[in-house]
Amino acid sequence: MSLPSFLLEILVCPECRSPLDEETEGEAHELRCTGEGCGLVYPVRDGIPVLLVDEARRPS
Known about the structure:
The chain is built from one helix and four strands, in the order αββββ. It is mostly beta strands. Strands 1-2-3-4 form a four-stranded antiparallel β-sheet, with no helix packed on it. A hairpin with a 2-residue loop joins β3 (about 40-45) and β4 (about 50).
């Protein structure tokens, strides 16, 4: 399930305020920060982005 485009236009990384890109891999749905020095990956649970830095993971 993809997030609406209008929502992706306004969502930003809470850590660095860079835009987020939507990523879907299998059933995993995530939002990745586009900031060069940040790159945090935020989960999307039941269609709701969890934009908490404590819940994000560093890219592998």
